Amino acid sequence: MKIGFIGLGNMGGPMAANLVAAGHEVAGFDLAAPMPEGVTKAGSAAEAARGAEVVITMLPNGKILRAVADEIVPAMDKGAVFADCSTVDVESARAVADQAMAAGLLAVDAPVSGGVGGATNGTLTFMAGGSEEAFAKVEPLFDIMGQKAVHCGPSGNGQAAKICNNMILGVTMIATCEAFALADKLGLDRQAMYDVVSTSSGYSWSMNAYTPAPGIGATSPADNDYKPGFAAELMLKDLRLSQQAAEAVDADTPMGLAARNLYEAFVESEGGTGKDFSAMLPRFEKRGRG
Ligand code: NAD
């Protein structure tokens, strides 16, 4: 397949490399990142998109996605698929899909979960919004770049699934970290705490698969001085998106709001920048109730 790939950063680079390794012809464009081996460098986003059957974007935010869409939609062939895999606000995802469909294109919003490791190993999960026809066309590419693709409904629903999942993740990570810090102060050994909770009703992905306490449970960024992993800034981005969405549809999300506020303070004024999102545990360790 002829594929255009725009945004070849930490995630997009290895995703494009996997498409090349599977035998696809990929033309890439990025403002700064180098082209992975085998990806043909295009002079502009429009040049990467021209003549492609599928154009994939992997960009930092909704504003940049909208700007890139303005450039590539007019350049794409009718019937081609615009697949955005960035994590952006639901509103931008729907606006870009409407713009693409009005121009005779198919559109899919398909954010991913699995991080840079998943992008490199081809084990991402894709959560997709768009028509059946659009999803069917890009599913074989998702199968190369990932291990699972779920069609979540019409345009924007992929982003909706992503921010709901990550709102749960942010909240459970905070709950897990504050419980470890409370256990410390109560004199409960961390290993005992893990052994109980990981097999009791408090278990979660945060506790069992990404244990935030060094030397306990699953091997995780906590065992590597909280180097990301999944950076606290990226968690904050996703929690902001979930609050933006909740405000737009008048949904009551008090725990999501509390998680957003905690990660905002952590990143902006408590040294959380550049740390994994599980570094909430050392944050709680140092604090009292005041
Ligand atoms: P990144 O910053 O490494 O990559 C983004 C790339 O987009 C950069 O190389 C940048 O130069 C390029 N870019 C920016 N504006 C551009 C433009 N106008 N035209 C062409 N290229 C442009 O970010 P990333 O970690 O690869 O994340 C990409 C997206 O994936 C984000 O939306 C992020 O939220 C999401 N995501 C990231 C992770 C992760 O663990 N890194 C996990 C899941 C989802």
General description of the model:
The structure is a single chain. The radius of gyration is 20 Å and the shape is elongated. By secondary structure, it is α/β, with parallel strands linked by helices. Strands 1, 2, 3, 4, 5, 6, 7, 8 and 9 form a nine-stranded mixed beta sheet that branches. It has helices at residues 12-21, 45-49, 62-72, 90-102, 115-121, 132-145, 157-185, 190-197, 205-208, 232-248, 254-269, 280-285; strands spanning 2-6, 25-29, 40-41, 54-57, 81-84, 106-109, 112-113, 124-130, 146-151. Bound molecules: nicotinamide-adenine-dinucleotide (NAD). Residues 6-12, 29-33, 45, 58-60, 64, 68, 86-87, 112, 115-116, 230, 234, 237 line the site of nicotinamide-adenine-dinucleotide. The site of nicotinamide-adenine-dinucleotide (NAD) has 26 residues, from helix 3, helix 5 and helix 10.
Give a topology summary.
Elements: E1 2-6, H1 12-21, E2 25-29, E3 40-41, H2 45-49, E4 54-57, H3 62-72, E5 81-84, H4 90-102, E6 106-109, E7 112-113, H5 115-121, E8 124-130, H6 132-145, E9 146-151, H7 157-185, H8 190-197, H9 205-208, H10 232-248, H11 254-269, H12 280-285
Parallel strand pairs: 1-2, 1-4, 2-3, 4-5, 5-6, 8-9
Antiparallel strand pairs: 6-8, 7-8
This protein binds nicotinamide-adenine-dinucleotide (NAD).
Nicotinamide-adenine-dinucleotide is lined by residues 6-12, 29-33, 45, 58-60, 64, 68, 86-87, 112, 115-116, 230, 234, 237.
